[in-house]
Design goal:
By secondary structure, this protein is an alpha+beta fold. The protein has two helices and four strands, in the order ββαββα. Strands 2-1-3-4 form a four-stranded antiparallel beta sheet. It starts with a strand and ends in a 7-residue tail after the last helix.
Length: 82
């Protein structure tokens, strides 16, 4: 199974289905590798816009952010207290 990570500069709009053919992406064999690349992209000032798998899996930019940052809260004992 392969996963494609579509990306763009900060401020990019979501990838529309008809724009995928012209969008930049990098392909990975596993979802974990795709998520690691998405994290790397954030650290270097780019934006992961969509992770799409051959099986129909789709993570939009919000789901990617939740996967990258939401899991960090659980890893350190939950969300910070106000």
């Amino acid at each position: 199974m392969s996963f494609r990570v579509y990306s763009g500069p900060k401020g990019s709009a979501d990838v529309a289905p008809f724009d995928k053919a012209q969008a930049l992406y990098k392909e990975f064999v596993g979802f974990d590798d795709a998520l690691t690349w998405a994290r790397h992209m954030e650290r270097t000032g780019r934006v992961p816009l969509l992770i799409e798998g051959d099986d129909g899996t789709q993570f939009d930019r919000r789901a990617i952010a939740n996967a990258l940052h939401g899991s960090m809260g659980a890893q350190f004992g939950g969300a910070p207290h106000a």
